[in-house]
Amino acid sequence: MTITKSVTFIAKEGCEDKMKELLSAMVKPSKAEKGCLFYEIFQYENDRKRFMAVETWENEAALDGHKASAHYKVYKSSYEPYCEDKYTDELEVLGVNYG
């Protein structure tokens, strides 16, 4: 069963560029991972402090592999000083068949 989630980040005031840099660095290596079906980072045009990662993984094993990757560990150990808030939502994808 596929897993799709959105992760919202709110950058601290003045930290938008650093947050953008850290999150952007995740895109290419994440897309190259086994089991990654979709991975994009968005920055809100009407609120430049707000970012959203939207990702879809083939299954729990693929998501676990992502969380064990070197680039994920760099992000995980680096983002907190620049982030005011972060929350994750599980999503149901409508009208798309990844199987």
Automatic annotation (TrEMBL):
One of its GO terms (molecular function) is monooxygenase activity. It comes from Sulfurimonas autotrophica (strain ATCC BAA-671 / DSM 16294 / JCM 11897 / OK10). Residues 3-93 form the ABM domain. InterPro entries: ABM_dom, AI-2_Isomerase_LsrG, Dimeric_a/b-barrel. This is Antibiotic biosynthesis monooxygenase. It comes from the Bacteria. Signal peptide: none annotated. Keywords: Monooxygenase, Oxidoreductase.
